[in-house]
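Morning!

This is the sequence you dropped in the shared folder:
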Amino acid sequence: MQMIRLQSDEISRLQDEIILRILNRLIDLKTLCFCYLVSKRFSSIVLQVDAISFTSPLWTPDKNTIGDVAPSNPFPPIISSFYGESFLSAYRFLIKFKGVIELLSSGLRAVDNRLFKWKVKFGNRIESVIFLSPNSIFYKDELYFNGNGDEEERNKRHIAFQCLKDVTARHMMLLHLVKDLPLLEEVSITDSERRGRLSLKGEKLSEVKEWVRSASEAVMNHVEVPNFLSNCYIPVLKLPVSGYVMKGVFVMVMEMKDLESENDILMNSEDGGFEDKEEAAYTEALMEIMEKHKGMMNTLSLNSRCGTLRRRLRGLLNGKLTL
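The structure's back. Tokens below.
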């Protein structure tokens, strides 16, 4: 008991700046929550940390932890169904912070071993999403990855639409983060396999902040379904810069009709750029397809003649059905 009291006295003698420096190295939201509950002094210091990261789904909060530190916050169905109660409970604690946030959310269920990446262009709405999935990847004539086997194009299309749902949920969560954290400087949301990322900072973040300040709740929670789809299948795709060869490549572009033919903007790394050599190969593959194979793209505009597919896409985004 005397040892515990001595350690407590040593901590109490530390300056707030020193404690904050230590807390800034913790990053993890769950750990910061436990620190927040230590004392009134700690609770005030914890909220000054400048970076937070957490993975969903998180833990189920105990009676005296996260569920008690902030009031409930309502979300549209697409967020509630995607993240679950543990995430929503954590969010109530998260919105007390004013620093930089990196959110690592869970990946797609039942597709974790498949090869695919996605890129997204967005502001206050999702403008376009590119989905790329090869059956296998070779490097210098040797098999590098073989994740999909000889997967049918129909199955890959299903995963692309599931990606669209996941990206939509993450984008809506990003808008809520920007709204609830007005001093936010940077936010990044990715999946657990880092297959793609939504990130905002600088001028783009300022533009979204301006939009959420003036948007009504109904406008914030409105989900726009992409009304222009195009896809193609390429048996063999050679990538001269990286030296990789992709086989059985399926690519789908989902975009708003008024932004058709602006795919070059999707190569902007800030909209979900890839970080290592392998991931950079996916970016090279997208550029090769858009520059040399765009004529192979089959297009579909979801107008009134395609009402069934449009309703199914909207149902997918609302969590009411799967394709």
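Headline: Residues 2 and 8 are 10 Å apart (CA to CA).

More detail when I'm at my desk.
O.
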